[in-house]
Every structure is written in C-alpha cells, then in structure tokens.
C-alpha cells in the first residue's frame, strides 16, 4: 500500500555498505582524540564529545586543541594551530564530503535493485518461518506421518517465463 519496505530497504542497504568507510573514519577520529588529549588538559569524555561534534555536526570547538586557554598567534601555539587546521580540514571538510558521496552512491545502487532485495528479504523471512514451523512441528508431533513430499518455489522475472515458453525442449 505505502511501499514502506521498498523505501526503507535502500536506506538500510546503503548504511550497511558505508560501514567500512565509517570504520576507517573512526581511526581519524581516534587520532584527533589522541592529539587533543596530548595537547590539552581536558577530560577524555569532553574530548570525545567535541570530536564527535567536529566530525558529525561540523561544530569545531577551539578548546579541542587549545584547552581552556584562548588561542593566540605565537611560536608556542603554532603546533596547536597546525593540528587544529589539519584535523578541521581532514575531518570536517574532506571526510564529511567523502562520506556524503559514498552514502549517495550506495543509496543509488541500492535503490536500483530494490525489487530484487525486497524479494530476497521476503524469501529469507518465509524460509525462516517455514523452518521454524517445521522444527516446532517435528519437536511436538507424536507418532505423526513423515511428510517428505513438498514443493520448491522458484522465482524469476516474467520476461524470462515468456522466453522459456518459446524455446523448444532439447531431447
């Protein structure tokens, strides 16, 4: 009716596909946390929270690399500025834009094959329910007949059905 499954499946598939990119991004986030922890006296929980805000919200807090002191241009703070600029460019600009592109491509690919994915999910759920029902029947059935006759369900596109009917059988 609403096609909710066909709308949600590409999103879930795209999230699954970008998982490897998020793991790589996590290494850069942890590098930022490590540098910030070494340069400042801030609590680790605050550093992790500020790093999350920098990466996912785009809110760069200068306290992440300068601590509570106000950033000033001096030879001593040049090292702090370098890391501030490096991680702001790497995480906020580069990785964020790459993530958007990877997520968009993954969603487009998933949306193209949503029909196949939807049927695959239905078949998998049907198989699980059938296996569960058979297992429960076998577990609680007493002295019943063993039903070994059954059917195999085969699914293929309609245009292949027409092609198969036009083909003569070999034999």
Structure description:
- This protein is an all-alpha fold.
- The protein contains 7 helices and no strands.
- It has helices at residues 4-17, 19-39, 44-57, 63-66, 78-112, 114-140, 158-166.
- Helix 1 crosses helix 5, helix 2 crosses helix 3 (44-57) and helix 2 (19-39) packs antiparallel against helix 5 (78-112).
- The longest helix is centred in the middle third of the chain and has 35 residues, at 78-112.
Can I get a quick summary?
This protein has 171 residues and is mostly helical. The chain is 73% helix and 0% strand. The radius of gyration is 28 Å and the shape is elongated.
Main attributes?
mainly alpha, elongated, 171 residues
Q: What is the topology?
A:
Layout: H1 4-17, H2 19-39, H3 44-57, H4 63-66, H5 78-112, H6 114-140, H7 158-166
Strand content: under 5%
> How many E-type strands?
0
Q: In terms of per-residue confidence, which ranges show pLDDT below 50 for 5 or more consecutive residues?
A: none
Helix percent reads over 70%
Helix segment count?
Answer: 7
Shape: elongated
**Largest sheet properties:** none
Helix/strand structural class: mainly alpha
Query: Could you report the average pLDDT, rounded to the nearest whole number?
Result: 79
End-to-end separation? 46 Å
Radius of gyration: 28 Å
Q: Give helix and strand order, one letter per element, not per position.
A: HHHHHHH
Assembly type: single chain
């Amino acid at each position: 009716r609403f096609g909710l499954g066909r709308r949600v499946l590409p999103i879930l598939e795209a999230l699954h596909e970008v998982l490897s990119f998020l793991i790589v991004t996590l290494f850069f986030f942890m590098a930022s946390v490590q540098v910030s922890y070494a340069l400042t006296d801030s609590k680790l929980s605050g550093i992790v929270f500020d790093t999350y805000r920098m990466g996912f919200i785009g809110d760069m807090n200068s306290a992440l690399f300068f601590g509570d002191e106000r950033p000033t241009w001096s030879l001593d703070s040049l090292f702090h500025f370098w890391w501030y600029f490096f991680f702001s460019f790497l995480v906020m600009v580069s990785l964020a834009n790459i993530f958007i592109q990877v997520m968009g491509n993954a969603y487009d690919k998933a949306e193209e094959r949503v029909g196949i994915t939807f049927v695959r999910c239905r078949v998998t759920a049907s198989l699980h329910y059938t296996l569960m029902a058979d297992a429960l029947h076998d577990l609680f059935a007493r002295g019943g007949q063993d039903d070994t006759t059954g059917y195999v369900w085969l699914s293929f596109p309609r245009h292949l059905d027409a092609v198969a009917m036009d083909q003569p059988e070999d034999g």
